[in-house]
Amino acid sequence: MTVLSTELVAETPYVWRARRPGSRHRLICFPHAGAGATAYAEWAPLLPPEIELAAVQLPGRQNRIAEEPFTEVAPLVAVLAQALRPVLTGPFSFFGHSCGAALAFELAKELRAQGRPGPARLFLSAQPAPGTTGLRQLHDLPEEEFRAEMVRLGGIDEEIAGDPYVMDSLLPVLRADFGLWERHRTAPGAPLDCPVTVLAGEDDPRAPKETVDGWRERTTADFGTAFYPGGHFYFLDSPGDVIALIARQTLGTGHGRTA
User: Fold this and answer.
1) Using one digit for the tens of pLDDT, what is the confidence trace for 63-96?
2) What single DSSP character describes residue 252?
3) Residues assigned a catalytic role
4) Cα 238–Cα 244–Cα 248 angle in degrees, nearest 5
5) Number of domains forming the structure of the chain
6) Cβ-count burial of 209 within 10 angstroms (0-12 exposed, 13-18 middle, 19+ buried)?
7) Strand bridging mode 51-56 / 92-97
8) Which of 47, 67, 141, 219 could disulfide-link 59, Cβ–Cβ 3.0 to 4.6 Å?
C-alpha cells in the first residue's frame, strides 16, 4: 500500500514538497508577503491523493531568513523558472495568495516566453488585477503605521503580533515584499491561454470585488471567480472549501502522472 506524504519537506532551497508517487496532478503554491512554504503545510493532508503539493520557498524567510530578499521581479522570476524545474513536470497548476498570486502569474508568463509548458490552471487569490489603481500603498508607510496595517490585514498569529522581537525581524521582509509588488508594473503582452480562477474574501480591503474581475483580460481561456466569507486571509481558518474547489478544477485537467 502506498503511503501518502502529508508533510512538506524541503527538497531544494526553493522547493518544499509532500511527495505522492502515482499522483496525477501537482499543485504548486506561492506564499503571501513575508510567508514561507509552510504557509501551506496544512493543505497536504487535505488534498485528495491524486494531487501532490509543492510550495515555493523564497529567500529571506524561515530556513532562508539570513538571505536577502529579491528587490526586482524580473530576476526573481528568472531564477524561479530554473529553480522550480523539478516540479514543473507533468500536469501542474499554480496557486498564489496575494503577492504570491502576482508571482505565479509572472512565472506563467515567463514559462510561455521560454516556450515551456505552463500551468494547466492559475488560481489567483486575494490579488487585484494588474493595472488596478486607487489602492493604498503600504510599503513606504512609517514604521508604526506599517506594523499596524500588517496586523490589521490578518495572517499574523496573535502570539507573533505580540512579540516585538519577532515582529522586528518579520516587518522588513513584509516591507520588502510589499515594495517589490507595489512598485511592479506588468509588462504588456498577449493574454495567457490557461484557465484562470480568482478567489477572494467578501470583505478583503486589499482585493475588493471590483478589483479582481480585470484578471479576465489576462487569459483567452475559461475565467471564473469565487468569493468566500472573510477578509484578506479568508481561507486560513477553514481551507477545506478552497481545496475542494481546487480539486474539482484540477483533476479534470490533463492526464498522466507527475514525475
Assistant:
1) 998 898 898 999 999 999 999 999 999 999 999 9
2) T
3) 98
4) 165
5) 1
6) middle
7) unpaired
8) 67
